[in-house]
C-alpha cells in the first residue's frame, strides 16, 4: 500500500496539487471583502462629491479626482478578483479572464502611484515657484497631466505584458494567474515593470516631498520674521487677507501630501522589499506575496479618507451626500411646498380684506 500511495503522489500534476490546497479562512475573506467594498464606496463618494460641488473643481483637485478614479478601479478590478485568488489559492476563472484582470490590476496600481508622484511634483512647484505656479496652474494643465499619466502608465505596462502573454503564456498552468518574475526577457518581466512604474514614482514622491518640506520650512521662518511688521501695515494692505487664505490653502495641501506620503511608505515598503528579495535572492513565497500586495492595496482604501481630513469642502459635501440631504435635491423638493404655503397665506389675507 505504501508503494501504491507514493506512486499516486508522484503522478499528481501541479494543477491537481493546486486544487487540493486548503482554502483561506472565511474570517480573513470577510475582512478582505469589507476592505474591498470600503475602497469602492469611499472613492466613489469622492468622485460624486466632485461632480455635485463646483467649489471642489480646482486644478489641484482634479489630480485628487484622478487618484480616486485609479483607487476605485483597484477596488473594482484588483481587490475583488484577488479575493477569489486569495480564497482558493489558485485561479478558477480561466486564462483569458486572468489576462484581463491582471492588466487592469497593474494599470490601476500604476496609475495611482503615478498620480501621487504628479501630486508631489505639483506641491514642489507651488512651493518653489509660487508666481509661476499661480500663473500656469489651470484646469487645462491638470487635464493634460491626467492624460499624460494614463499614457505613460500604458506605455510602461503594455510592451512587456503583450510579449509575456504572447510568447510566454504556455508556461502558466491551467489554474495559475500571475506574471512570472523569471520571464523570458528582463524587459518583459514584472520586476522591470515594478521598478519602472511603481518604484520610480515612489522615489519621485519622496524626493519631491523632501524638497517641498525644506522650501516650506524656509518660507515659514521668513514669514515669522515678517509677521509683526505685516500686522502694523495690514490696514493699508488690502491683499493681506488674500495672501493669508492662499498660505492657509497651501498648508492644507502640504498636510494632505504629508499624510499621503506616510501612507505610501507604510503601504508600499513591504511590497518593494519582497520584490527586491525576489530579484536578488530568488524568493518565491505565496503567503508573503499576498500579504505584501494586500498591504499595498490598502493605500487605495485610506486615500479618500485622507482627502476628507484635509479638505473641509469635500468633507461637508460627502457628509451631506451620505445623509441623503444634498442641498440641490432638497431645494427642488421643498420649494414647491413652500410656494404653496405662501400662496395659501396670500389668499387668506385677500379673503380677509374682501
UniProtKB/TrEMBL annotation:
It is found in: Cell membrane. This is Muscarinic acetylcholine receptor M3. One of its GO terms (biological process) is G protein-coupled receptor signaling pathway, coupled to cyclic nucleotide second messenger. InterPro entries: GPCR_Rhodpsn (IPR000276), GPCR_Rhodpsn_7TM (IPR017452). It comes from the Eukaryota. PANTHER family: 5-HYDROXYTRYPTAMINE RECEPTOR (PTHR24247), MUSCARINIC ACETYLCHOLINE RECEPTOR DM1 (PTHR24247:SF265). Keywords: Cell membrane, G-protein coupled receptor, Membrane, Receptor, Transducer, Transmembrane, Transmembrane helix. GO terms for molecular function: G protein-coupled acetylcholine receptor activity; G protein-coupled serotonin receptor activity. It comes from Hypsibius exemplaris. The keyword Chloroplast does not apply. It is a multi-pass membrane protein. Residues 42-307 form the G-protein coupled receptors family 1 profile domain. The chain crosses the membrane at residues 26-52, 64-88, 100-121, 142-163, 192-216, 253-274, 286-307. Its main location: membrane. GO terms for cellular component: dendrite; plasma membrane; synapse. It holds the Pfam family 7tm_1.
